[in-house]
Amino acid sequence: MHIVHCGFDTLALSIETNISQELFALLDAEREKAEEARAPVPFTYGGADFDLLPYGGNGYRFILKGGPLDVTWFIKKPNARDGWGIRVSVGSTFLATQGLGHARAYIDKTLTRLGVRYGPQQISIARADFCVDILAPDFELQPENFVIHSHTNRADHLVADDTRSNGKSGRYTSVTVGKMPGRQVIVYDKRREVIDRQKPLWWDIWDANLARDDLPALDPTDATSSRVWRVEIRAGKDLLKDRWQIRTWEQFDALFGDLVAEAVQKIRYCEPDPSDSNRARWRNHPFWELATSVASEDLLEMRSHVDPDKIKYVHRKEHIRLILAQITGNSITVAALEGVKDPDLSNWLVENMGPRLKEEAEANRKRAANKLNEAKSRYRFVG
């Protein structure tokens, strides 16, 4: 077993301030364009670049995306009676590759560019998730091996796995203990999630950390050698504010490590002892010992050191793969409608679709040029 990544996975915070009327007017005008186009539109202000979505939600007038690093901005219409006008959600890509410190600096820099002023007491941290990824191909998750408080909720997820040869019908891929917005601890098969949800960047994150330890890269096609399990500690607003009195960055820096340490002590994955009916005396499983070893370290600056250009490359490559799959599928559908036989399909695609696409583009050069510019704008963060 080996740790292939550890760090923050999600961060959400609210800021007690409102945007200026000037910025609101510009955003409102651009959102009308987005609504008309039914698609995000580029928005730049003060040197900060976003994609403005054509809708809002949960009381927020505007939702802006900050590119492939997975940062979302929620902004309300300025209202003197509601001071909490901005919410920021930082996702796993940014935090895993750049670290919490860089994320905080990015938030400060972006708000400065937007002309937003606020003090350290005007921040309220609403959620923070911390994760540890462990390469453990032989580990098998068993829900009954968790030792938890009798009143703590636990959810198990069982799925079929055809690769097993011992005749069992399935295996557990995740166990969730606790509920949000309180404390939640989850153990799950991260490799399966990366494949199912098409998140290829995680292979680069894991490989970068393995390379730093002079270990070989993973083979994504071989589950017997590349099974990665994640232990994720989620802290919702009730746990942060009510139990730990964590709201500001100063309080977060001082107390979040202790919060994580308490979580992995109160919820443990153990090795069952058939001779001892008192589960509280069961020893921690080596998997849990490895996962919890990071709780005593400095959690704030953990990152994977993946080159930002690599992130853009992986996102661009994945977009190209998905679009090519759509083009291929649509082309084969045209072939079917035109009665093309299976043995002739490959030659038909080469001889017919290329010239047709060229003819379509040349027949309306202005429209094609506009579509090209729209696509360049839409994918400018990874282009």
- How would the global form be characterised? flat
Which sequence of strands runs across the widest sheet? 2-3-4-5-6-1-7-12-11-10-9
Measured between the Cα atoms of the first and last residue, the distance is 37 Å
Strand content: 15-25%
Order of helices and strands: EHEEEEEHHEEEEEHHHEHHEEHHHH
User: Main β-sheet: number of strands, strand sense, barrel status?
Assistant: 11 strands, antiparallel
Rg result: 25 Å
Q: Tell me the count of domains.
A: 3
Oligomer: single chain
- Strand tally, please? 14
Overall average pLDDT: 87
Helix content: 40-55%
Query: In terms of structural class, how would the helical and strand content be classed?
Result: alpha+beta
Low-confidence stretches: 160-169
Our count of helices gives: 12
Topology:
Blueprint: E1 2-15, H1 21-37, E2 41-45, E3 48-52, E4 62-65, E5 71-75, E6 86-90, H2 92-98, H3 100-113, E7 123-135, E8 146-147, E9 154-159, E10 171-178, E11 183-189, H4 190-196, H5 201-212, H6 223-226, E12 228-235, H7 237-243, H8 249-266, E13 268-271, E14 283-284, H9 286-292, H10 308-337, H11 345-363, H12 365-378
Antiparallel strand pairs: 1-6, 1-7, 2-3, 3-4, 4-5, 5-6, 7-12, 8-13, 9-10, 10-11, 11-12, 13-14
Helix pairs in contact: 2-3
